[in-house]
Amino acid sequence: QVQLVESGGGLVQAGGSLRLSCAASGRTFSSGGMGWFRQAPGKEREFVAAITRAGGSTHYADSVKGRFTISRDNARNTVLLQMDSLKPEDTAVYYCAVRKWWDSAYVLSRLWNYWGQGTQVTVSS
């Protein structure tokens, strides 16, 4: 079993920055990855960013590429999401997730195995 605890959400003005952190406890999966999804009111959960555990390769949604940076600390089983140049459309609940096995279908939320409780990010205009 895996438990995920997110922190770092809050309210920020457009153009500002926030950093989200996700600490995982329990099992680790050397062939998997950690990532972030978000869900705005009335919308489906969407992929934001992910990083593989083994090689540390990163993947981003087009909407955040160049503004968000994902990183991980395998020793602490932690993943970070640095969010810069935030826009009002980034407002959502952000969820940390763990996937046991990595493949090219990482954008599909239904294929991720463990989820955190979510943290609210609100960007005011």
Explain how this protein is built.
This protein is mostly beta strands and 125 residues long. It has strands at residues 2-7, 10-13, 18-26, 33-39, 46-52, 58-60, 68-73, 78-83, 92-99, 114-115, 119-124. The strands form 2 sheets. Strands 2, 4, 5, 6, 9, 10 and 11 form a 7-stranded mixed β-sheet that branches. Strands 1-3-8-7 form a 4-stranded antiparallel β-sheet, with no helix packed on it. A hairpin with a 6-residue loop joins strand 4 and strand 5. It starts with a strand and ends with a strand. The mean pLDDT is 94.
How do the helices and strands line up, and which of them pair or pack?
Layout: E1 2-7, E2 10-13, E3 18-26, E4 33-39, E5 46-52, E6 58-60, E7 68-73, E8 78-83, E9 92-99, E10 114-115, E11 119-124
Parallel strand pairs: 2-11
Antiparallel strand pairs: 1-3, 3-8, 4-5, 4-9, 5-6, 7-8, 9-10, 9-11
